[in-house]
Write a structure and sequence with these properties.
mainly alpha
């Protein structure tokens, strides 16, 4: 089978997983819509969210977010991530695509829908504390864990990492959607971003729900065959870029190889391969996050 054909098949298969059952229809709603947009392709937020580094970033983000017991309780009690993981992935992918690349009108409509959904996510965590997904404090944690992860992943795996000033701009640009979702005073610089994460550390703990989520992500992924090899390489890259304290809390062990060496030998080539298959012209014709991320 010609290499070009294999490349296109792999790209289309990957795109179908992260963009849902009808990726072309969703892509059309993002890229085909006419109207003013918040960002352009030269903006740092566009560059980060359109790169294949979002793949290990997505795994890392979920691992880090799971460390807040109330945020994790909401996911565990209200999400079907174990039975329908690709639905959750595709919905998240579509949200990021619509609010980064889509028209303002469509982005605001989607944000409104997510806020309405958050209002319905309420419950009691195993430790007896009540939670609600619309709580600005929990929204802040989810935001900073996600944005710090996406930035870290991009800086590690992109061929053109952001300058320090561009990284600050990225954080500032992500704050716009965060505010509309209900986050109060989101960080505007990388230093502030790290400061907020550090401030949350006393609240973080590993619950049984977090352990189950990590086990699912790292040991029972919803893939098989050759896909499984690629997924585990991306998952390994995600773990290697986690903060040491987060890795220790989750009890994640890695082979006795320095992180820099492991990322250079396996992580970067794997992300590069994902980038290569997703930039096939037949795939990027209807691209989404990460040109399908």
């Amino acid at each position: 089978m010609p290499l070009a054909h294999l490349r296109r098949r792999a790209g289309m298969a990957l795109r179908a997983k992260v963009a849902g059952e009808n990726p072309s229809e969703r892509a059309g709603r993002v890229w085909g819509a006419v109207g003013e947009r918040w960002f352009t392709e030269t903006d740092p937020i566009w560059r980060v969210h359109a790169d294949a580094a979002m793949f290990p970033g997505g795994i890392r983000s979920l691992l880090l977010q799971s460390l807040h017991p109330l945020a994790m309780a909401g996911v565990d009690q209200h999400s079907d991530y174990r039975s329908e993981p690709w639905v959750r992935v595709s919905n998240t992918s579509f949200f990021i695509a619509q609010t980064t690349f889509g028209t303002i009108e469509n982005a605001e409509r989607m944000i409104g829908a997510v806020r309405a959904m958050h209002e319905r996510v309420v419950g009691v965590a195993p430790d007896g504390r009540e939670y609600r997904a619309s709580d600005p404090h929990l929204l802040m944690w989810v935001h900073v864990a996600e944005i710090e992860t996406f930035l870290t992943s991009f800086q590690m795996f992109s061929r053109t990492p952001l300058s320090p000033a561009e990284a600050d701009t990225y954080v500032e640009q992500t704050a716009h959607v965060a505010r509309l979702l209900g986050v109060v005073d989101p960080p505007l610089t990388v230093a502030d971003l790290h400061g907020v994460i550090d401030a949350y550390r006393p609240e973080l703990q590993v619950t049984e729900a977090a352990r189950r989520a990590a086990h699912f992500l790292l040991h029972e992924p919803p893939v098989s065959g050759v896909e499984n090899l690629g997924y585990h390489a991306l998952a390994s890259a995600a773990v290697r870029t986690l903060q040491p304290w987060a890795r220790a809390m989750l009890g994640l062990r890695t082979a006795p190889v320095p992180d820099d060496l492991a990322l250079r030998l396996l992580g970067r080539p794997t992300v590069g391969l994902v980038r290569w298959v997703l930039t096939d012209p037949g795939v990027t014709r209807d691209h989404e996050v990460g040109h399908a991320a």
